[in-house]
Amino acid sequence: MRSFLSILGHSSERKRCPDQPERKVPVVALAGNPNTGKSTVFNALTGLRQHTGNWPGKTVGLASGPLRISGSTILVVDLPGTYSLLAASEEERIARDFICSGTASAIVVVVDATCLERNLNLVLQVLEITDSVILCVNLVDEARRKGIHVDKAVLSRELGVPVVLTAARSGEGLDQLKNAILHSVNWGESAAAKRSALTRVKEAMSP
Description:
Layout: H1 4-8, E1 27-32, H2 38-46, E2 51-54, E3 61-69, E4 72-78, H3 90-101, E5 106-112, H4 116-129, E6 133-138, H5 140-145, H6 152-159, E7 163-165, H7 174-205
Parallel strand pairs: 1-4, 1-5, 5-6, 6-7
Antiparallel strand pairs: 2-3, 3-4
């Protein structure tokens, strides 16, 4: 079976452009199906301190705002809601292109706890592009009212990514989500710094 990346024409090897400028402020993107409460999560993380701008060459706006936590500032970008990265609309193409661009240090995929199975298609597609993913299972309050239990330990083990349960409207789980984002960004920067240092050492040892 062809992988999602082969359909898109992308290599499975995750690369970053060598001439990509150093980012002073790490970027985290929110992705998710429509009606998962993604924008509510975004507003809760940024405190409504948003700026809307267009993806280059496109007319669809991207909302962004700062998440400030533990003395760090992280730029959060709210991508257009999409059911799949196999783009059928301009919004879906923008979400796909942003994720594939490597601009974000991590991708937070927001899913609806009441219809988790339907939302996991997008999660699996994003995981084919990057393993720097946090799964935000939102609307857990509605799931509880419907008698639905989400086992985050099993989800995390099976997907290999951090899982945070939230009810963004009431603020439930948001502190855990912020800490997961901070940890993911710090881990990613630390790993990148180690790779860069190793490359410099190898170059210095080359004849």
